[in-house]
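Example noted here:
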Amino acid sequence: MRRIYEPESLLEAEMLAGMLASEGVQAHLVGRDLVGATGELPLHGLLGLSVADEQAEYARQLIDAYNGAQPLIGDEPESFPGTLIC
């Protein structure tokens, strides 16, 4: 297993794990059970997504594409221009 990404929140971690699973990549969320100790533990590096070594490159490409996504012109709400609608 190789740690490929440190999500900012549990919500992002779960969403990315689901996206990876939909693409056939089995992801393991490291630190999920430690989130409840916020305030007692340092926040940086608490969560991580790990995948099998042979799927690491593909998973990293998928996450990079997700992070680089831009909203389609005319698809964002008027009150929040530049916001990606999921």
The chain has one domain: 2-67. The chain is about 30% helix and 15% strand.
